[in-house]
Each structure stands twice: as C-alpha cells, then as structure tokens.
Automatic annotation (TrEMBL):
<keyword id="KW-1003">Cell membrane</keyword>
<keyword id="KW-0997">Cell inner membrane</keyword>
<keyword id="KW-0812">Transmembrane</keyword>
<feature type="transmembrane region" description="Helical">
    <location>
        <begin position="199"/>
        <end position="217"/>
    </location>
</feature>
<dbReference type="GO" id="GO:0006865">
    <property type="term" value="P:amino acid transport"/>
</dbReference>
<protein>
    <recommendedName>
        <fullName>Arginine ABC transporter permease protein ArtM</fullName>
    </recommendedName>
</protein>
<dbReference type="InterPro" id="IPR000515">
    <property type="entry name" value="MetI-like"/>
</dbReference>
<feature type="transmembrane region" description="Helical">
    <location>
        <begin position="161"/>
        <end position="179"/>
    </location>
</feature>
<dbReference type="InterPro" id="IPR035906">
    <property type="entry name" value="MetI-like_sf"/>
</dbReference>
<keyword id="KW-0472">Membrane</keyword>
<feature type="domain" description="ABC transmembrane type-1">
    <location>
        <begin position="16"/>
        <end position="217"/>
    </location>
</feature>
<keyword id="KW-0029">Amino-acid transport</keyword>
<dbReference type="GO" id="GO:0043190">
    <property type="term" value="C:ATP-binding cassette (ABC) transporter complex"/>
</dbReference>
<dbReference type="GO" id="GO:0022857">
    <property type="term" value="F:transmembrane transporter activity"/>
</dbReference>
<keyword id="KW-1133">Transmembrane helix</keyword>
<dbReference type="InterPro" id="IPR043429">
    <property type="entry name" value="ArtM/GltK/GlnP/TcyL/YhdX-like"/>
</dbReference>
<feature type="transmembrane region" description="Helical">
    <location>
        <begin position="20"/>
        <end position="42"/>
    </location>
</feature>
Length: 232
C-alpha cells in the first residue's frame, strides 16, 4: 500500500494542477468575454443583442460533453482546411486547448446571463442620479452599472466557477484522460482494480478545491457586499 501511495501521490498532485488550470483559465477567458457580451445583450439594437442571445442559447441548451466532442472530434473533419491556417491548427489539434475553448465558451454563455440579469436590475435611482449629474451612457455603465452589478452577481458567479470545476471532469472523453483528477483516478482503478479508493480520493480532492473556492468567494462577498448588510 505504501508503494501505491508513493506512486500515485505525484500523479494526483499533477491532476490537481491540471484541473485548476482548466478551471481558472476557462473561467477567466469566459468572464473576459461575458462582461462586454452581457452589455451587448442588453442593447435595444437586435444587431447586437440577437447574436449574443443565440450564442448563449446554444451553449446553455446543449450538453458540455457534446460541445467537447464537436470541438475536438468535429473539427477533425476539416483538418485539411484548418492546416491552411497554421496558428489555428496548432491550437485545435491539441486536446488541452480544445478543452479550454469548450469550457470557456460554455462558462461564457452562463456568465452572460448572470451579469445580464445583474446589470438589468441596477436600481433606477442610481441611474437617475447619474443622469442628473450629467454622466454619459458610457460613464453610467462603468461608474454605476458595472461595479454595482458585478458585486451583486458575485454569489451566482461563484456557483458558476464551481460548476466549471466539476465540468472539467468531462475531459475524460479526449486525450487528457490521464492528466486531470478524474483521469488519474481512472488510471489508478485500471492498474490496481480498486473500484472505490481511487474515486474516493478524487471526490475528496474535488471537495477540497470546492471548499477553497467557496472560502475565497465568501471573503470577496463579505468585503464587496458589506454595504448591503449595513443597509439592513
């Protein structure tokens, strides 16, 4: 048993690192695109809002697993065409970056809806006060709507990051199968024929990461939403 732990502890440590990479890189990219897209989704001009709504509807309406298949295996049908664009082919041919793209697009779609609702629910009094002070629409957005909406969206967004963490386990369908936490557990199960221990270890690691994420977001909420507590 000691030899078993000595062999798989470094593998699980690397699995945690890969899982964290997939989670945080995807969440960061998704958030970076979701914020301006959420603002576009609120536009009264359908040229801006309709494409964003279609994008959000597609990625929220289809399973993440199907999206991974489409990106990793589906794009393989167009390998001849993609090879004509070397930089793009170098990205999509690698399972790691296909997973990052799939996760980023998926979390972006959900994050758009989170922030769209939060921006829309900005108190009318705040906006009216900004208008009375002579602020432009852009100033109203980045001085009033964005900071206020971002703080209110934080609890819902923290759940989305945790969902993204759990979603990374689905990379087992591509060549990252032995690199993330679940992949290492599957590898250990096949090598040792232990059906319970490997997945219990994986579950504990996911729980530990989830606990740390909840702790971090709770600290952020306590700091950035403290004005709501004092108001009551």
């Amino acid at each position: 048993m000691n030899n078993l732990w000595a062999e798989y502890t470094p593998l699980f440590a690397n699995g945690v690192w890969v899982t964290l990479q997939l989670t945080f890189i995807s969440s960061f990219i998704g958030l970076a695109f979701a914020l301006p897209l959420a603002f576009a989704a609120l536009s009264r001009n359908p040229l801006f809002s309709a494409p964003v709504s279609a994008f959000s509807y597609f990625f929220r309406g289809t399973p993440l697993l199907v999206q991974i298949y489409l990106l990793y295996y589906g794009l393989g049908q167009f390998s001849a065409e993609l090879r004509q664009i070397p930089w793009l082919w170098n990205i999509v041919k690698q399972p790691y970056w296909c997973a990052i793209i799939a996760f980023s697009l998926n979390t972006c779609a959900y994050t758009i809806e989170i922030f769209k609702g939060s921006f829309r629910n900005t108190a009318k009094g705040e906006i009216e006060a900004a208008i009375a002070m002579g602020m432009s629409q852009w100033q109203i957005f980045y001085r009033i709507i964005f900071p206020s909406g971002f703080r209110r969206a934080l609890p819902a967004y923290s759940n989305e990051v945790i969902f993204m963490l759990h979603g990374t386990a689905q990379v087992f369908v591509i060549a990252l199968v032995n690199l993330d936490i679940l992949g290492v557990a599957r590898k250990m199960q096949r090598a040792t024929f232990y059906d319970f221990t490997p997945y219990l270890i994986a579950a504990c690691l996911y729980l530990l990461i989830t606990f740390l994420l909840v702790f971090i977001f709770k600290k952020c909420e306590k700091r950035w939403l403290s004005y709501l507590q004092t108001a009551h």
